[in-house]
Amino acid sequence: MNTHTIHTDTPAIPADDYDTTAFYAAPDTIATVTHTTAPDAVPLPSPSASTADVLAAVREAGRRAVPAPFAETALVARPLLRRAGFPVPDGPLSYAIAPELTIRYAHPAASAVGSAGCSGENDTLLVSGILRRVPWARTATAVIVLATAPSGPVLFTLAPDRAVLTPGGNLAGEPRDDLHLTALEIPASQVRRIPRHLLDEAGHRAALARAALIAGAAERCTELTVAHTAARTQFGRPLSRFQAVKQEQARLIEETALVGAAVQAAAAPLDTGSPAAAFAVAAAKTQASASAAEIARIAHQLHGAIGITQLSPLHLATTRLWSWRDEDGDENSWAVRLARSVTATTLWPALTATP
């Protein structure tokens, strides 16, 4: 597999400076920004890779704060395109789950029953509405949109330059753009009718991708904090020798391990399409989002003032933790889904199931 690496000594990259075309030198290649001179890259997993392998790569991308839609491409867009029967295009991809779009058929059927546009001679669509906060829309070669047409759930591909783009970003400066669609015609060749469960799977994949990124960023916070407290001295001894610091470090390591375990446990159910996938993904995103704030708090507390500066690499991890915590559902929304996914008779088997 090809790899392509970009090195930089600048820890922060403004959102307007993102150009992920530079990160895709070949179809299966993605580069990472590193802060050393050693060759270092995170390759995109092969299309046949298991969910566990993809999650491992996404976690590494989160740990390195890769400035590209790695998770969106590898864990969400590519699998959904394959499941829907589309060829997978080269380059970075993004996604939007948009049940609020207004969709009608562009060529209403002559024998339609009901209002005009409720059925069509073919699947060409007219789409209106706003796709809000689409990850990396400005740099994606295509956005995979999942919505509901008059006939039911559909998946279609959208080139971002066909929409009116309003740039935006999250706290970490990653692009989160709005795409405005006004009676935009989507050719039938770019539309697939999909079963309802694939729409659910899209939400699960998006949430698990964000949880895996959080797991990687949490690992980075732990690495940086342990190194800092070992090197920084106060009153003649390293910070890591103080009992209060040891206790906080232990809690940081514990929270990081919890997130990693929850993400890993969700891989097998999602891979097999098991009914347990909804429970496992809800547990992973609930834990990841709940732990993100605590991990960032401890890391910054033990770093002190240096941790909030642009000179410290810590902010690359913590600003992403704060952003990813809320994206694709926060801990409260996923905790509700977690509770609804089990009943008194299914709770114990779900907790004790072996992947």
Automatic annotation (TrEMBL):
<dbReference type="GO" id="GO:0033539">
    <property type="term" value="P:fatty acid beta-oxidation using acyl-CoA dehydrogenase"/>
</dbReference>
<dbReference type="Pfam" id="PF00441">
    <property type="entry name" value="Acyl-CoA_dh_1"/>
</dbReference>
<dbReference type="GO" id="GO:0005737">
    <property type="term" value="C:cytoplasm"/>
</dbReference>
<dbReference type="InterPro" id="IPR036250">
    <property type="entry name" value="AcylCo_DH-like_C"/>
</dbReference>
<feature type="domain" description="Acyl-CoA dehydrogenase/oxidase C-terminal">
    <location>
        <begin position="208"/>
        <end position="316"/>
    </location>
</feature>
<protein>
    <submittedName>
        <fullName>Acyl-CoA dehydrogenase</fullName>
    </submittedName>
</protein>
<keyword id="KW-0560">Oxidoreductase</keyword>
<dbReference type="InterPro" id="IPR009075">
    <property type="entry name" value="AcylCo_DH/oxidase_C"/>
</dbReference>
<dbReference type="GO" id="GO:0003995">
    <property type="term" value="F:acyl-CoA dehydrogenase activity"/>
</dbReference>
<keyword id="KW-0285">Flavoprotein</keyword>
<dbReference type="InterPro" id="IPR050741">
    <property type="entry name" value="Acyl-CoA_dehydrogenase"/>
</dbReference>
